[in-house]
Design brief:
Elements: H1 13-19, E1 27-32, E2 35-40, H2 47-55, H3 65-72
Antiparallel strand pairs: 1-2
């Protein structure tokens, strides 16, 4: 592999497959005994999971899931 002028490398497909890495996943580079080790990043990967993790448990709406789903589908909400 060759390092680009921006300091980037391409992780070979076989390595990505063995680590279960998909496009958009984040990785950590660790140094151990003079060698660089690539590992999947701990915690939520990508923007979507980070947003969900940040919002988890923050809802304050007095509606049930069924009522919210009805609203998203343009139906009338009963029992409100």
């Amino acid at each position: 592999m060759r390092i680009t002028s921006k300091g980037q490398i391409t992780i070979p497909q076989a390595v990505r497959r063995e680590l279960g890495l998909e496009p958009g996943d984040e990785v950590e580079i660790r140094v151990h005994d003079g060698a660089a080790i690539i590992v999947p990043a701990a915690g939520p990967a990508g923007r979507g999971p980070r947003v969900v993790a940040a919002l988890l448990g923050r809802g304050d709406v007095d509606l049930t899931t069924d009522q919210i789903m009805a609203l998203t589908r343009g139906r009338a909400v009963r029992g409100r």
